[in-house]
Amino acid sequence: MAYRVRMPQIEYVTVANHAEAVNGLLYLQGAGLTQIVQPIDAAGQPGVVHVGIGVSLLVGWNETNETFPLTLTVEHEDGETIVTIEAPIETGRPAGLPPGSDQRSVLAVSGEVQFVRPGGYRVRARLESQESSVTFRVLRPSGPQGGGPADFHLPPMG
After folding, report:
1. Which CATH architecture has domain 9-139?
2. Is 61 helix (H, G, I), strand (E, B) or coil?
3. Residues 10, 55 contacting (CB under 8 angstroms)
4. Could you give the CA distance from residue 113 to residue 58 in angstroms, rounded to a whole number?
């Protein structure tokens, strides 16, 4: 009988305005992002946007203290890979954990991104034969750009 090695399970991958992993917790702001409106700078070039990716993995009792190869890729809808991130994961067993307990392992990536072109993008999380992905669109503004949400004027009172 062949022994089958179990793998941690990818619970989800999400795109957010910002993502951080601190002390085993995943902090997301603006998670579930499906559209990014990328600003255009004064020279008419695509501006920079802050983007985060959050990943949650469920690690079984027998998979702790082993390293597993997680790969994240961001691809444009035409198939071009924009970035690849190799992130080996290893989760230890904390003292006092009841035997057989699963644990959650989280990963966050955040940074300033300048998408060279608008369109559809896909973030893929791969853990050996498993894959989970999420899509989003990058849009360019069609009209004049203001200074942000606080850039408005109230009519005079009177």
Report:
1. Sandwich (2.60)
2. helix
3. yes
4. 29
